[in-house]
Amino acid sequence: MQRESMALTSVWFLCTIFTLVHLTPLIVLEEEHRFKQWMFQHSRGYDTEEFYQRLQIFTENKRIIDRHNAGNHSFTMGLNQFSDMTFEEFKKFFLLTQPQNCSATKGSRVSRTGPNPESVDWRVKGNYVTPVKNQGQCGSCWSFSTTGCLESVNAIATGKLIPLSEQQLIDCAQDFNNHGCMGGLPSQAFEYIRYSKGLMAEEDYPYTGHDDICQFDPARAAAFVQDVVNITSCDEKAMVDAVAWLNPVTFSFDVTSDFMHYKDGVYTSTQCKDTPDWVNHAVLAVGYGSEENTTPYWIVKNSWGTDWGKDGYFWIERGRNMCGLATCSSYPLPSV
């Protein structure tokens, strides 16, 4: 009996080795094929050495995505333009690298009496939200959050939706504690626009995605700021009030590695921090909702192009200061 058991074990071992020897090359070829398809889709090219480095990162990211999607979560992940990058690389190129402490901004509470609408989406209320833009490899999300908000506020006030210049903010707003491609805050950018007497249109001061010399021409300014409203830190109800009755609002939050792969659903995290000293990405809340059997959420415009997330947008849990999103929200009062 012992000999039979040993014989069966030996057969199992040999079969396992045979399977691994013959299947492993097939798995590798399949991974390479998938990666090459992704490269073609995203117009990527590498030399031989980098190809295998990126293949390894891509394969690990795919495993993270598949493992997450096999679990019970409120959001799904998917491959996107960042899938050949480590999170460390991603942070370096796309998030705020200069520490930003939005608790330094002064708050002024926004409040309304009576109930708010169950859901709001400024994208469908009128021509109030510009298309999703792409910041590229520059930590300039703060400038896109700023322009997105002022574009909407200005359109609501004037009826004219004018794409505004992120590059002017990158090049010119350093005296207001902003740092170009190294980071900044929308509240500080609004202050710059207020005191510099305007922001030019995107077509007159186009985006280059790197720091450059300031070329602001006040005579060609297309939008102006009369004052800045900094919503009281951590007062998410005041954020809802503002978006429900007034306009979209900017907010900043702490992005962790799983957000890089976001595809659909309501994003939640147990890894991110919820204090103002951890914020590393600025975005624009254009609405909110709460569908049946789903977590209440914000509708958020990002600046990573339309290939990411829900055509460039994402939903994030509302009502719990998720990832610090309520620590430093703001919007401008237009001067028209």
From TrEMBL:
<dbReference type="InterPro" id="IPR025660">
    <property type="entry name" value="Pept_his_AS"/>
</dbReference>
<comment type="function">
    <text>Important for the overall degradation of proteins in lysosomes.</text>
</comment>
<protein>
    <recommendedName>
        <fullName>Pro-cathepsin H</fullName>
    </recommendedName>
</protein>
<dbReference type="InterPro" id="IPR013201">
    <property type="entry name" value="Prot_inhib_I29"/>
</dbReference>
<keyword id="KW-0865">Zymogen</keyword>
<dbReference type="GO" id="GO:0006508">
    <property type="term" value="P:proteolysis"/>
</dbReference>
<keyword id="KW-0458">Lysosome</keyword>
<dbReference type="Pfam" id="PF00112">
    <property type="entry name" value="Peptidase_C1"/>
</dbReference>
<keyword id="KW-0325">Glycoprotein</keyword>
<dbReference type="Pfam" id="PF08246">
    <property type="entry name" value="Inhibitor_I29"/>
</dbReference>
<dbReference type="InterPro" id="IPR013128">
    <property type="entry name" value="Peptidase_C1A"/>
</dbReference>
<dbReference type="InterPro" id="IPR025661">
    <property type="entry name" value="Pept_asp_AS"/>
</dbReference>
<dbReference type="GO" id="GO:0004197">
    <property type="term" value="F:cysteine-type endopeptidase activity"/>
</dbReference>
<dbReference type="InterPro" id="IPR000668">
    <property type="entry name" value="Peptidase_C1A_C"/>
</dbReference>
<feature type="signal peptide">
    <location>
        <begin position="1"/>
        <end position="23"/>
    </location>
</feature>
<keyword id="KW-0645">Protease</keyword>
<keyword id="KW-0378">Hydrolase</keyword>
<dbReference type="InterPro" id="IPR000169">
    <property type="entry name" value="Pept_cys_AS"/>
</dbReference>
<feature type="domain" description="Peptidase C1A papain C-terminal">
    <location>
        <begin position="116"/>
        <end position="333"/>
    </location>
</feature>
<keyword id="KW-0732">Signal</keyword>
<dbReference type="GO" id="GO:0005764">
    <property type="term" value="C:lysosome"/>
</dbReference>
<dbReference type="InterPro" id="IPR039417">
    <property type="entry name" value="Peptidase_C1A_papain-like"/>
</dbReference>
<feature type="domain" description="Cathepsin propeptide inhibitor">
    <location>
        <begin position="35"/>
        <end position="90"/>
    </location>
</feature>
<comment type="similarity">
    <text>Belongs to the peptidase C1 family.</text>
</comment>
<keyword id="KW-1015">Disulfide bond</keyword>
<keyword id="KW-0788">Thiol protease</keyword>
<dbReference type="InterPro" id="IPR038765">
    <property type="entry name" value="Papain-like_cys_pep_sf"/>
</dbReference>
